[in-house]
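User: Just a sanity check before I run the rest of the batch. Below are the structure tokens for the first item. I only need the designed sequence back.
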């Protein structure tokens, strides 16, 4: 399935996800649920920076990061070079959101790996 279809599926199955972006291995926005392209690009850049800073602090490559605030959370998941980042409201079911984001990434990777 292509990136936009994968995000549409994510939004359908994950009632906790409010907005999401899928990034190419190069860090560009491949698909987004956001209506404004500049918001999608800004969120994508912030998600990559969050992942980079968390890795710097931990001293190791990370596959997922969650940041929680009083008003909601940001989730960032990396798999095979692609990144999926999403926002939720307060008190999300963390494991379920991570699972849904990983499922979204696998769906896009499966299409990329399929023979033409």
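Assistant: Here's the designed sequence for the first item:
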């Amino acid at each position: 399935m292509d990136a936009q279809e994968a995000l549409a599926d994510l939004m359908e199955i994950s009632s906790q996800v409010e907005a999401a972006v899928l990034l190419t291995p190069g860090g560009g926005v491949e698909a987004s649920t956001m209506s404004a392209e500049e918001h999608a690009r800004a969120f994508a850049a912030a998600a990559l920076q969050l992942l980079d800073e968390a890795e710097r602090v931990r001293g190791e490559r990370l596959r997922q990061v969650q940041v929680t605030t009083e008003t909601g959370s940001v989730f960032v998941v990396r798999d095979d070079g692609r990144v999926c980042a999403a926002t939720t409201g307060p008190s999300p079911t963390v494991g379920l959101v991570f699972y849904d984001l990983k499922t979204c990434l696998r769906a896009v990777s499966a299409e990329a790996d399929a023979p033409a």
